[in-house]
Every structure is written in C-alpha cells, then in structure tokens.
Write a structure and sequence with these properties.
Blueprint (H helix, E strand, L loop, with lengths): L6 E5 L7 H11 L3 E6 L1 H15 L3 E4 L5 H14 L3 E6 L18 H22 L3 E11 L11 H22 L4 E7 L13 H11 L8 H12 L10 E4 L10
Parallel strand pairs: 1-2, 1-4, 2-3, 4-5, 5-6, 6-7
Length: 255
C-alpha cells in the first residue's frame, strides 16, 4: 500500500458524495490513518458516522475562519499523532446569491467571505500545522476550471479558486525547503452538495460526457486516486502544480 501508516487530516468532509469522502476512501484503501474536522453540531452529526465508516481515528471541531480553533486543532493532532504526513483541504464557500446572476454584483462581504474560506484558509492551516508536518508531508487542495476560464454562475468562487491556485505556488516555495509538497487537484464537475449551488453545473455534466476526450464525467474516486498519487512517494517530485482530473476537458479548445 502506498500510504501505509501515513497520518492524514481531511478537512471538509460533508457527506458520502463529497470529494473529501472520495479522497478519504482512497487514502484509507492505501493504508493511511485518518482524522476529520467538522464545523458545528449539525455537521458533527454527519461527520462522525462517516469517520467511523472510513476507520477514522478522531474528529474535532475546527472552523477554518477561526484562528483559535485552528490552534486547538493543531494541539489535538499533536496529542493524538505527534506529527502529520498529509493535509487534505477540501474547503470552499460562497454565498448562494453570489453564485447567481452577474459577478459584477458581488457584495464586498460576499467577496471577502469567499476568499477567506476558499483561499486564505489553506495558508492559515499550513502556517499553523507547519511545526507538525513531517519532512515528506504532502498538502492537497481542491480547485476548479473556473479559476482560469469563465464558467457562468461560478462567479466569485472562480476568483477565490484563482487566489487558491496562486497560494499553492507560493506555499510550495515556502515549504519546499523542508521537503513539504503543496499541490491542487482541479476536478471536473461532480454532483456534490457544493456543486448544486452553481446552476451551470447541470449543463456541464452533459457537456463533459459529450465533448471531453474520455467522453465521461469523473467521480470522487477518480479524484481520490489522484490524491493518493500526490500524497505518496510516487509524487515526491511534484509540487506547486494543478493536476486536472476532468477527463481531459480542460485541454479542449473548442467543443
């Protein structure tokens, strides 16, 4: 197994259809030990049974917009494991009203919220967990094609993902001297709870099946497989990259 005994913290698990679940499943299949966060009691009720199903060793509350909770998370992980090999950042949020209509109508509050949750949180987590990362640790975050191309309705989230991808490059540089790698996976549209907020995604599924080189949509397990590669020694020479897992759709110039 590629990740035997590796300690992996997965942030952003929501349900068994989420990308975080697919990644966690793949990590577990390759021998990784798992832990998960949740935000509030409502999410806790969903996360704890999923953690048990996946063989997770512990869960804890951590709002990635709260520095005190991030600091507490570091202490919890240190108490349980002492160090950390893998950090999966599958966290993003924007107000639903900012994912409809025109991007130009995005409110200042909505813009700041989307950037803080979806982009800055990765930097905050890397900074806080830096003392715990092993010298071969791997950090993986989730992005989307809307970071570089116009996806109607993706709006402010596209701007946030562009900031996230830039953050990946700078974090890769800062942490690389310690042997720590930072990468992003850009998945094709997947029917998750988060995706349901973007109206254009419904059409995207049909376009992917018709026009992508592989003529199919991708699954959370496809994304999980890519994450295993990036987190294992097989990907030890890869950092600062965006790996597209989208059946080749991002390479199409016309369709």
């Amino acid at each position: 197994m590629l990740l035997e005994g590796k300690k992996a913290l997965v942030l952003g698990l929501a349900n068994n259809r989420s990308i975080a679940f697919g990644i966690a499943s793949a990590l577990a299949q390759h021998g990784a030990r798992l832990a998960f966060n949740y935000v509030g009691d409502a999410i806790k009720k969903r996360v704890e049974p999923l953690s048990a199903e996946l063989g997770g060793e512990f869960t804890f509350q951590c709002d990635v917009c709260n520095d005190d909770q991030i600091a507490d998370a570091v202490n919890i992980v240190r108490e349980h494991w002492g160090s950390l090999d893998i950090l999966i950042h599958s966290v993003a949020y924007a107000k639903r009203e900012d994912l409809t209509g025109r991007f130009i109508d995005t409110s200042r509050e909505g813009f700041n919220l989307a950037l803080e949750v979806s982009a800055y949180s990765l930097t905050a987590l890397c900074h806080a967990f830096e003392p715990l990362f092993t010298d071969s640790a791997s950090i993986v975050t989730m992005t989307y094609l809307g970071s570089s191309q116009i996806i109607p309705g993706y709006n402010v989230m596209g701007v946030a993902k562009a900031a996230l991808e830039a953050s990946v490059r700078y974090l890769a540089y800062d942490l690389g001297q310690s042997g720590i790698r930072v990468n992003a996976i850009s998945a094709g549209p997947i029917k998750t709870l988060a995706a349901s907020a973007v109206s254009s995604f419904k059409e995207s599924f049909n376009i992917m099946e018709k026009s992508s080189p592989l003529r199919r949509n991708v699954s959370t397990l496809d994304v999980g497989g890519a994450a295993v590669f990036l987190c294992s020694d097989m990907g030890r020479g890869v950092t600062g990259e965006v790996l597209y897992v989208d059946s080749g759709y991002s390479k199409m110039g016309a369709y």
